[in-house]
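Quick review question:
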């Protein structure tokens, strides 16, 4: 079992930055790939970024490539999402998720956090 708690969301102006954190419980965190997903009202959940258990492999959605950076610290059981150059269309609830294998498909992830809201004003 892995329990996930996100933090770091908030209200920011377009062009600003936020860093999301996802703290995991359980000694097996370092064996899981981690993903960030987001969901805006009335829209489907979409992939943002994912990182393998070692950090050696990383995926990004095209919409965030070059602006967002995913990273992890296995000693702290935490995964991060640094978001720069934020746009109003980045407004959504952001969720972290854990899965034994690296994937961009949210349906493949076993464990989910409760989400943190990011709102970007224009």
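Suggested answer, residue by residue:
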């Amino acid at each position: 079992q892995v329990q996930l708690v996100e933090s770091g969301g908030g209200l920011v102006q377009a062009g600003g930055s936020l860093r999301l954190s996802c703290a995991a419980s359980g000694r097996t965190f370092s064996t899981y790939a981690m993903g960030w997903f987001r969901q805006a009202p009335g829209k489907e959940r979409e992939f943002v970024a994912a990182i393998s258990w070692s950090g050696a492999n990383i995926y990004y959605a095209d919409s965030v490539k070059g602006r967002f950076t995913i990273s992890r610290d296995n000693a702290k059981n935490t995964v991060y999402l640094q978001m720069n150059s934020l746009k109003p269309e980045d407004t959504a609830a952001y969720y972290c998720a854990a899965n034994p294998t690296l994937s961009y498909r949210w349906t493949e992830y076993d464990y989910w956090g409760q989400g943190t809201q990011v709102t970007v004003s224009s």
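Why it works: DSSP finds no helices and eleven strands in the chain. Residues 33 and 102 are 5 Å apart (CA to CA).
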